[in-house]
Amino acid sequence: MQKFLGLFLAFLLPTPLLAQKKLSAEEVRQDLVQVQSLLEKYYPGMYFYEYPKDFANRLDFLVPKDSVDLLSTYRRVSALISGVMDQHLSVVPPETNENPKYLPFILKRFDKHFYIQYNQSPDSSIARGSRILKIDSIDILEDYQRFSQLFGADNDNLYSKNYNLERRFSTYYHRWYGSKDSATIIIDTSSKTIPFLTAKEALTWTTKRYGQVIRKNLDYKVLDSTLHIAHLDLLSFRGKKKLNEREFKMTLKSRFKQIEKDSIQSLILDMRGNGGGAIVNVKRLLQCVLQEPFQLYDSISVTKNGFKKVFKPYLGITTIAGRAYLNKKNEQGFYRTYYNKGQAHKPNKKHNYKGNLVVLMDGGSYSATTFTIALLKNKERGIFVGTPPGGADWGSFAGLDYTAKLKNSGLKVRIPLMSLIHNTEGKKREDFFVQPDYHIEQSYSDFLERKDTVLGFALKLLQNEGNP
Predict the structure, then answer these.
(1) Residues in domain Tail specific protease (predicted)?
(2) CB 391: neighbour CB atoms within 10 A?
(3) CB neighbours of 317 closer than 8 A, spacing ≥ 6?
(4) Which of 72, 76, 109, 373 sits between 20 and 30 A of 228, alpha carbons compared?
(5) What is the mean pLDDT of each run of 10 residues along the chain (468 residues)?
(6) Where in the chain is the domain with CATH 3.90.226.10?
(7) Nearest Cα to Cα of residue 269 among 125, 373, 342
(8) Can you name the residues that pair with 422 across neighbouring β-strands?
(9) Domain ranges in the chain with CATH number 2.30.42.10
C-alpha cells in the first residue's frame, strides 16, 4: 500500500487533456462506488486476488478532496481497477482527439535504464540503443512506475507488467498526460525536442526503417536445412477477419502441410507477444501438434447477473440455449464441466506434427496463448524457453465481456463475464504461472547487436540435441 500511495502522488500533476470537464469529489466517489457495484454484480473474479478490505481502502484513498478533471478521474478509476489484478479488466481512456499523437519510440528496459529499440520518428540521428533519461524534465523511471497503475496483470504478474510497459510506453504516456504535440527529451547527453506522431505516421516510419524485422503472423521459415529445424511465428490466435477465422484455419493448415513436406524434425513454436485471440484457433493448433485427444477446459462458468448479459432474456431463444449449454447451477451462477472423455478433441490425422517441439514464451503471451502453453505443458509436449507467460496457469476471467458506462464521468469499464478453467489433465503445479524449462531473456549486448537471444538459444538447444 505504501508503494501505491507514493506512486499516487503523481495524480496531482496538471492534466492538459479534457481539463475543461470538471467533476466534484462526490461525483468521482459515486463513479468509484459504481465500479465496485458493477464488479460485484457481474465480474466472476471479484476478490479472487485481493481481500475486500484492500479494495475498499483503495477506493477511499482514491476519492479526491476537491474537484478534478476527467483525465484525473480516469487515472483514479484505472488505479482502482488495476488493483483487482486482471489484465482482461480495463477502463476505456477518454479521448476527444480523433487522431491523437504519440511519443514516437518503442523502448527496451535493462535494469533501471531505458533504451530506444525502435525509432519511429523522422529523425534518423537517434540511434537504436540510445538511452532516454528524461521526458519533459521527468525521470523516465518515474513515469514507468506511474503508468503501471493504468492496467492490471493477473495476480500482479511482473513479467506481464514489464512487457506491456515497455512495448506500450508511448500509449500509456498519452493516456497519463493527455494530448501533446511534442516533448523535450534527454537522450544520452543531449536534449532534443521530439515532435509526436499519429499512429499511422509512426507505423509508416517503422515499416520504412525496420520492415525486415517486423513479425508476421504464422510466418514460417526453415532455420537449419541439414538438421531440419524450422520456426513458426504465432503472433496472434486471430485472423485478419475477426468474424471469420477461416483464413487462420487455412493458413495454419498450409503451414503444417509445408512442415511435413520439408520433413521438419524440430519445430520452434514462437508465441512471444501473442496476446491471445479466438479459442477455436487454439484447438486447431493443438490438433496439429498433439497426438492424443485433449480437452480445452475443465469448466466454464458465469455469474447469475452475467448470464443475463451473455444470453439476453428479451431474445428468448438465447436464454434457453444458454441454460442448455451452461447446464449446471450453484449459488454463484451457471456453469458447465468437461470431464466427459467423449467430448475430447481429436488430433488431426493429416499433417500432424510429431517431431521435437520448443515453445517460446514471454510476459506478452496472454489469454488464449497462456491457455495453449498451459495445456501443452500438462501434456508434456515440448520444451519451454523464455519467461513465464502473462496469464495464470489455472485459467482466466475472460470470454465475453460487458462494457458499462459510469454515470458522472462517462468513462467505460470493460468487465469480463466468464470464468474459464483450463484443463489440467489431473496435474497440479505449485507455481501460479507456467515456468519455462529454460529461463532466457535478451541480454543487453545482444540487444545492441540486434540478436534474438531467446530464439538463438532454442536453435542452439536443438542443434546440440538438448544440450544448451
Answers:
(1) 229-396
(2) 32
(3) none
(4) 373
(5) 48 49 96 98 96 98 97 97 98 85 97 96 94 98 97 97 97 95 95 96 93 90 98 94 83 98 98 96 97 92 92 75 87 82 86 98 97 94 98 93 97 96 78 95 95 97 81
(6) 213-463
(7) 373
(8) 297
(9) 101-211
Q: Which three cell numbers stand for residue 460?
A: 542452439
The hierarchical CATH code for the domain 101-211 is 2.30.42.10
3-state secondary structure of 329: strand
Q: Long-range contact list for 19-24, CB < 8 A, 24+ apart?
A: 19/69, 19/71, 20/69, 21/69, 21/70, 22/67, 22/68, 22/69, 23/67, 23/68, 23/69, 23/70, 23/73, 23/408, 23/409, 24/67
How many Cβ atoms sit within 10 Å of the Cβ of residue 457?
18
What is the rounded radius of gyration, in angstroms, for the C-alpha atoms of the chain?
23
d(Cα 213, Cα 117) in Å, to the nearest integer?
12
- The C-alpha cell at 180 is 501533446
DSSP 19: T
Beta bridge partners of 185: 135, 192
